[in-house]
Amino acid sequence: MHELSLMSNLLADAAAAADGAPICALRVRVGPLSGVVVEALRFAFEALSPETCAAGARLDVEETAPAFHCPRCGADYETPIGAYQCPGCGAADGELRGGNELELVSIEVPDHV
Ligand SMILES: [Zn+2]
Question: What pTM value is reported for the model?
């Protein structure tokens, strides 16, 4: 289950971004082609976060669609998995531009009073 090491990296990134502050929420973006199982990622978060400054934090997962750029008509489009044709011209040789990402989008830290 490589989600554990992936989540470990995300938590390290979050901790570095928070600069020592406690974290109340993390938002991560997961592409459908990343090979990451969201349920496993949540499990990894539950297992690892209590030992970090993200203890008790909320995990928001943003799941993206595969994104393509069509070299024929220049369209940028997103499609469900299994349907990769350009909606503009019907070409099926779009270049993959996104969908395999796993990244930390943002963190929330408590407001300082
Ligand atoms: Zn096209």
Answer: 0.81
